[in-house]
Amino acid sequence: METVVEVKNLVKKFGNFVANDNLTFEVKKGEIFGFLGANGAGKTTAIKILCGLSTPTSGELNIAGFNIYTEREKIKKNIGYMSQKFSLYDDLTIAENIKFYGGIYGLSLKKIKEKTIKYIEALNLEQYTKKMVAELPLGIKQKLAFMVSVIHEPKIVFLDEPTSGVDPITRRQFWDMIYNEANKGTTIFVTTHYMDEAEYCNRISIMVDGKIEALDTPANLKKTFNSNNMENVFIQLARKATRID
Amino acid sequence: MNLSVKISNISKKFNATIALNSINCEINKGEIFGFIGPDGAGKTTLFRILTSLIIPDTGTAIVDGDNVVSDYKLLRNKLGYMPGRFSLYQDLTVEENLKFFAGVFKTSIKENYHLIEPIYKQIEPFKNRRAGKLSGGMKQKLALSCALIHKPNVLFLDEPTTGVDAVSRKEFWEMLKHLKSNELTIVVSTPYMDEAAQCDRVALIQKGEILDINTPQNIVNSFSHKLFALKCDNMYELNIESQTNKNTHSAYLFGETIHWVAKSEECKMNFISEINAKNFKNFEILQIQPSIEDCFMELMTK
Fold first, then answer.
1. What residue numbers bound the domain in which B290 lies?
2. What is the ipTM of this complex?
3. Which of B256, B282, B292 has the highest number of chain A CBs within 10 A, making it the mutation to test binding with A?
4. Least crowded by CB within 10 Å, which of A37, A43, B49, B58?
5. CA gap A88, A97 in Å, rounded
6. Per-residue pLDDT tens for A103-160?
């Protein structure tokens, strides 16, 4: 199976502070990879690097087949990104948002039109098309944001706490969408604070103080840490943290 | 007086959006009471009304014996409020922030130090650091200390654990349990359903309406169906199958299993034989106790 994310000995320092301390992992095509860690463990720093927004201090990284040092612009074109904090533009309509993101990623107008019709149908948004995104219920907005994040059919999509604060039914519908996308072969790289969602991932890494302390399937992690749920595994590992953050 | 908060028919609209639709709720003295619901449920609007920061369109709310509209001046001295967004002064130090809040309420750190000691002493080594430079967990502890320094009778905590990792969340609830006493009512909101279990009583809230108010145990007990956990090797296919199967009342992914309810006992038997016929590898079905989240979803779809 094709490797979509290849990270070898990633180190990122800010002055004397080691935010990412020798991370090594791989993510395969179509895999749902959960990237967990306590606040301040170094997740955001790593994600920024993987998305081509920041360069590592050292290490060998290949994302979607491109080199992190020399091909960052190509990486950006071949990945998708969404988070709870930043997804769609509130003061644009649904169609305008789709057109904007489609345009940014260089889709033809014809293709953008197709996608617009498809998304509006899939989410039953007919009544909302002319409305500003700000007026959409949060759940629908998050689902639309996810669709838009994969509008250019990227090899990998980064989801940074995509379901934070969303109601429990929508949260599950969101995961149904993630499963679907992964089933089509898109790699999913996701962070979450909901430990039940960690169970939905094929594999999980847990970061503590800048290092990956555990990396395995949810079932194996539970076995290793002698726990019946992921929350317990997470707490056992994260309690070891010594950084004040 | 055993009531700490009495909310009667409170409604609030913002333009065409109904934030709260005729809310009724009573909170007892000394209780840890939770408003559990997703973003947009109306939790923050309700907290702003209860802390006298905005005025409801209709209805009344009495907090610690005072009307939130007409007696707001009296009331503000007796309540503590920690908003969802960090709202301390970023460019003041830890100690300066605490001094400021004590000063506003005409008290001193010394006078009420015993109240905040277990929390504040964890951040006291950093008392000369600016609040803006603190980590998330430390900011939270400082904000809680500032909300407590004037010895309030009622403490309102609006989503104190949102976006916080599982370890810090656990620690925060432990702090709240230490604070619990007959003199202090704690009203807290959260989008995390599993935190309901930490409260004495909870109100489940969705789209401006209260779905249920009870102890977490009673809410779970009132789940009126048999709930089953389904599992097999191919969860992706099983999830689609159980959601689309005609015998299904509800099916939701839930950690490593699918929580499933049948339309009837007969439907359950039909479902099992259909699943067996389709050869799902290592299929297991097990009756389980519902969680608050199961109850919430059931109430949402009623």
1. 227-300
2. 0.84
3. B256
4. B58
5. 7
6. 999 999 999 999 999 999 999 888 888 889 988 888 889 999 999 999 999 999 999 9
